[in-house]
Design goal:
34% helix, 15 helices, alpha/beta, 3 domains, single chain, globular, GMP Synthetase, Chain A, domain 3, nine-stranded mixed β-sheet, binds xanthosine-5'-monophosphate
Length: 514
């Protein structure tokens, strides 16, 4: 079945991705295009409706993002949000001006008209909505009528029911907006008439078919690390082409306790996949000897990984593809009109490898958001432990072993890390936090154990809550749990006589210590 699609045109709002996710939560597919996407590309996409995102600009400022006017002639429903609303007013003959009072945060919305957009949400409802704007509609365009207001915005929502154009001054996509989900749902189903055609089952079938077609009788190689994205990619590709996939797991010597074994067990035993385990730990540790600077550690590990991976991949006959777990947010970022982010992580840089081996990329997750990858993994029968795993950095424990990375120091850090994770899981907190781990500091401090004076290592425990790792807050782990972690580390890990808890948020700190 062809999938019904809603197109989101991006004008630079921090919430653009959230709009697409909200649509997809309703089993309707959604993609984001930059505001200046060519008109033909928009037509080719065959959307059932378009949502114009918010954005930081003013429609009347020079250089503000303005899409081609032709989108209003396609004859499909359009919903403008915030800047998207002002654009509609501006382009369709209304007037936008600076609001006498800027509105940020909560506002009380009163719905004045029982339009399709507010169906099932009673009129005269006082709902709290999330505003973020400095401009407002002074005059709505011909054909439109106001359908809701707030104290500061007489036109907080407007509609041209004949043409199916709707616009909101507030953000229905954010959780703080009451009834926001219902409003988006009404737009997708009542107004655009979309059908429920975006399900994980249908995604899997289509993806498998596409992978099979593309690969033919050639072979695919995939690097796996134990992380969610690479594991789900590998399982999906394996479902499509079976043993024509070879997975390579490189042990870089800075993995957590039993990491390699766990991943191997899961993929080999449960999914009968071919995995090449390459123990390159000595090679990596030799290169890391005496290196204290975290950036150098990262470079060494990244470069060495490419070399080891390449050596192994070269041994596979007829290999033509590299499967990679690229996700939709990376795809959007790379084609955003703001330009790709400057912070592409070095270990993701496989460009050289592709060129040298003449490999083509297979990126079966490039349409998916992280939460959808988890649903996919679940649908593919992968264990919850893998699907819900916390992120783990490519350079591994090397950047949590501050200063020198030696086998002895890594052994201490691994043991402490096992205890931290164990106690957090036992307390039922693992799923509530973004990341939790131990860091080995390059400091020694005095302690007493029995009657003996000790002079030993300090372990820092780091636990943070976050939605995307971009910003984070230190997690308020109960004292009893912290107490148990500290007791066990000091009692069970030889060489540690002090445990501290990191109470810094990001920014200004980062999640990893490095
Ligand atoms: P920071 O320390 O910058 O980390 O606040 C943000 C998030 O990114 C993870 N991280 C990495 N993930 N490769 C990865 O796949 C890396 O090189 C890398 N470095 C940091 C970090 O664990 C946190 O979740």
């Amino acid at each position: 079945m062809l999938k019904d699609k809603i197109l989101v045109l991006d004008f630079g709002s921090q919430y653009t991705q959230l709009i697409a996710r909200r649509v997809r939560e309703n089993s309707v597919y959604s993609e984001i295009f930059p505001y200046n996407a060519p008109f033909e590309k928009i037509l080719d996409f065959k959307p059932k409706g378009i949502i114009l995102s918010g954005g930081p600009s003013s429609v009347y400022s020079k250089g503000s993002p303005i899409p081609g006017i032709k989108i209003f002639d396609i004859g499909i429903p359009i919903l403008g949000i915030c800047y998207g609303m002002q654009l509609m007013a501006h382009l369709l003959g209304g007037r936008v001006a600076k609001a006498a009072k800027r509105e940020y945060g909560r506002a009380e919305l009163t719905i004045d008209d029982d339009s399709d957009l507010f169906k099932g949400i009673s009129t005269n409802l006082q709902a709290v909505v999330w505003m973020s704007h400095g401009d407002r509609i002074e005059k709505y365009p011909e054909g439109f009528m106001p359908i809701a207001h707030t104290e500061n915005s007489p036109v907080a929502a407007m509609a041209d029911k004949k043409r199916n154009f709707y616009a909101l001054q507030f953000h229905p996509e954010v959780v703080h907006t009451e009834k926001g989900r219902e409003i988006i749902k009404n737009f997708i189903f009542n107004i655009c008439g979309a059908n429920l055609t975006w399900t994980m089952k249908s995604f899997i079938e289509t993806a498998k078919h596409e992978i099979k077609e593309k690969v033919g009788n050639q072979r695919v190689v995939c690097g796996i690390s134990g992380g969610v994205d690479s594991s789900v990619t590998a399982v999906l590709v394996h479902e499509a082409i079976g043993d024509a996939l070879t997975c390579i797991f490189v042990d870089n010597g800075v993995l957590r306790e039993d990491e390699a074994k766990k991943v191997e067990r899961m993929l080999k035993k449960s999914f009968h996949m071919k995995i090449k385990y390459v123990d390159a730990s000595e090679r990596f540790l030799k290169k890391l000897k005496g290196v204290k600077d975290p950036e150098r550690k990262r470079k060494i590990i990244g470069n060495e990984f490419i070399r080891v991976f390449e050596d192994e991949a070269m041994k596979i006959k007829n290999v033509a593809f590299l499967a990679q777990g690229t996700l939709y947010p990376d795809v959007i970022e790379s084609m955003s009109f703001k330009g790709p982010s400057a912070t592409i992580k070095s270990h993701h840089n496989v460009g050289g490898l592709l060129k040298k081996m003449k490999l083509k990329l297979i990126e079966p997750l490039r349409e998916l958001f992280k939460d959808e990858v988890r649903v996919l993994g679940h649908e593919l029968g992968m264990p919850a432990e893998t699907i819900n795993r916390h992120p783990f950095p490519g350079p591994g424990l090397a950047i949590r072993c501050i200063s020198d990375v030696t086998k002895e120091r890594l052994a201490i850090l691994r043991k402490a890390d096992v205890i931290v994770l164990d106690e957090i899981k036992k307390a039922g907190l693992y799923g509530k936090i973004w990341q939790v781990f131990a860091v080995l500091l390059p400091v020694k401090s005095v302690g007493v154990m029995g009657d003996e004076r000790t002079y030993d290592n300090v372990i820092a425990v780091r636990a943070v809550t976050s939605v995307d790792g971009m910003t984070a807050d230190w997690a308020q782990i109960p004292y009893e749990v912290l107490g148990r972690i500290s007791n066990r580390i000091i009692n069970e890990v030889k060489g540690v006589n002090r445990v501290v808890y990191d109470i810094s948020s990001k920014p200004p700190s980062t999640i990893e210590w490095e």
